[in-house]
Amino acid sequence: MTEKEQRVAVSNRKARHDYFILDKVEAGLVLKGTEVKSLRSGNANLLDSHAVIKNGEIWLFGMHISPYDQGSYLNHDPRRTRKLLLSKREIRRLLTRVQEKGLTLIPLSIYFKGPYAKVELAIAQGKKSYDKREAIKQRDAKRDIAQRLRHRTD
Q: What's the pTM?
């Protein structure tokens, strides 16, 4: 059995800067026809989005999918709330984790796995400003070391 081809449509690069990622989950995404076409062309934004568990279902808020260019009056609302598809057991597990202090559900990326749109959800904890500064210092130090090793003459 071969692994289905995965193609990342949109990623939330700022999430790894703003949050500590504790766990990841793959969820299905309920979309309308014009949303799928727009998403396949990469016209989406996950920057201010988050997921919420309501009445035993998971909903994705704040994700922006631009209207499809060739769409007609059937175009979708760009900021509508979208339902995520997970089993009841996974939803219960996420609910217990999210009820812990300071944890939230954020989307890391949206990709296509075969014909289906999937969301990579993360259980995350927000970083404080000093944590972000520390991460920037570490990244700069690694870059400086790599640069010195590259330009080193023996």
A: 0.75
Mean pLDDT of the chain: 84
Q: Which string of DSSP letters, residue by residue, matches 45-99?
A: E-TT-EEEEETTEEEEES-EEPPPTT--TTPPPTT--EEEE--HHHHHHHHHHHT
Q: Six-digit token pair at 130?
A: 């000093």
pLDDT tens digits, one per residue of 47-99: 888 899 999 899 999 888 888 777 677 676 778 888 999 999 999 998 888 88
Strands 82-85, 19-29: pairing is antiparallel
Query: What are the residues whose beta carbons fall under 8 Å from the beta carbon of 74, sequence distance 6 or more?
Result: 33, 34
Burial of 64 (0-12, 13-18, 19+ CB in 10 A): middle
Confirm if 124 and 20 have CB atoms less than 8 A apart. Answer: yes
Residue 27: the pLDDT is 92
With contact defined as beta carbons under 8 Å apart, do 62 and 31 qualify? no
Q: What domains are defined for the chain?
A: 6-127 (2.40.280.10)
DSSP-assigned states of every residue in 97-110: HHTSTTEEEEEEEE
